[in-house]
Amino acid sequence: MNLTQEDWVSQFEADENAVILDVRTEDEFNEGFIANAINIDIHRGQDFVNEIEALDKSKNYYVYCRSGMRSAKACEIMNQLGFENAYNLIGGITEWEGEVVEP
């Protein structure tokens, strides 16, 4: 499900079962990320699928990338793997107006 930044943030903040997932490359992640995000690079093919499958399917995942394209694909993959709640951030971190953590 695609959510605007406003909806993504308000839903995430009200969700006690939320996990933020960044599906960009490690290099992109290291340039700055949304606080508390875990990084699993969608470009890693089967390794990406394996790492996603190891996640807790009872959690709600708030997924983002640079522009929203890779995270939309990641949400599709997660839905196919049995995740019921994967939310894509429209516009990705490029349009993110919130705080960005720089490692």
From TrEMBL:
CDD domains: RHOD. InterPro entries: GlpE_sulfurtransferase, Rhodanese-like_dom, Rhodanese-like_dom_sf. It comes from the Bacteria. It holds the Pfam family Rhodanese. Residues 14-102 form the Rhodanese domain. This is Rhodanese-like domain-containing protein. It comes from Flavobacterium petrolei.
